[in-house]
Amino acid sequence: MTQFRPVTDSVSVSPQICINDIDEAASMGVCHIINNRPDGESADQPTNADLCAYAESKGIRWTFIPIVPGQVTADSVAQTSDALKQNEKTLAFCRSGTRSCNLWGLSQAYAGTEETTVILQKASAAGYDLSGIIPALEQLRADAK
Fold this sequence. Notes:
The chain has helices at residues 19-27, 48-57, 74-84, 98-111, 116-125, 134-144, and strands at 5-6, 11-14, 32-35, 61-64, 90-93. It is of the alpha/beta class and 145 residues long.
């Protein structure tokens, strides 16, 4: 089973999930899953379509925002911000959880909902170091004002 790492009360991030992880997420009250991993990154990776169909059969909303490593875009940040606006219990995943945590942090700065220090603290508590994206966080926060 994959380890879900809480970043906030409503958002957790995770390395790659499988069908059994969707069952676990549903039992924990997850209402929404965001897949940040493009199909085909590894041969053993389940497809987005298969995971999405299974999640939706369990009543879990699914959003696909694939991010190629190192290629986060302004559009993907805006999509993530929009996806998180409902403040429902959400699980975001990618290969290791890092892209998903980065997108969470960037989306919070983009929306102006969290100070950079708070974003860094929450990510760190979940086991992720976002110090490499501080300039982007600061710029997004400044633009949100």
